[in-house]
Amino acid sequence: SAVISQKPSRDICQRGTSLTIQCQVDSQVTMMFWYRQQPGQSLTLIATANQGSEATYESGFVIDKFPISRPNLTFSTLTVSNMSPEDSSIYLCSVRTESPEAFFGQGTRLTVV
Amino acid sequence: AQSVTQLDSQVPVFEEAPVELRCNYSSSVSVYLFWYVQYPNQGLQLLLKYLSGSTLVESINGFEAEFNKSQTSFHLRKPSVHISDTAEYFCAVSDHTGTASKLTFGTGTRLQVTL
Asked: A4-112 adopts what CATH topology?
């Protein structure tokens, strides 16, 4: 298993600003995943972050809007840039270890006003 | 590519009644199947998983799910629910390509348990 800590747990931000979300894992993992959960919706994968290489973004998500860093095997950040109210969502960090299931952080609840 | 369908967006049920949350998937390859639970204002927790072997899998809090390959289903059941089971339940599927494989989630089913 893996224990994931996400910071901040929630934030209220002004439109046009940026927020960086941190994800710390208690063990080394190859792949880390970032999801968005819009209000009342399911999870949508934003990107996959592999240590030492550029993140791979899913259709509809771009690096300029959601830059990701992966400096080592236990840490990653997701930045939500130039925010608008439509970015109000829960953002979740996830990892997979040797077993197929994924483990999730508690999420970051972002409100853009 | 895989897809997951959860037909019921909301399921209201009285406490101590049985419940079934439906999940159907589509995939051209062998899959792993999962149920995750999200309690209010919390992240996702793994409830149970099917990887291989016995098609009936159980969780520690009384939920069970049965993998039915011919029906491409993985329905979640509990014979007697509690108020504390009120939460959002997500069915998810991934292929067998290891840690890089992506999880595809259904749209979720909100289980509302009342007295």
From this structure: Immunoglobulin-like (2.60.40)
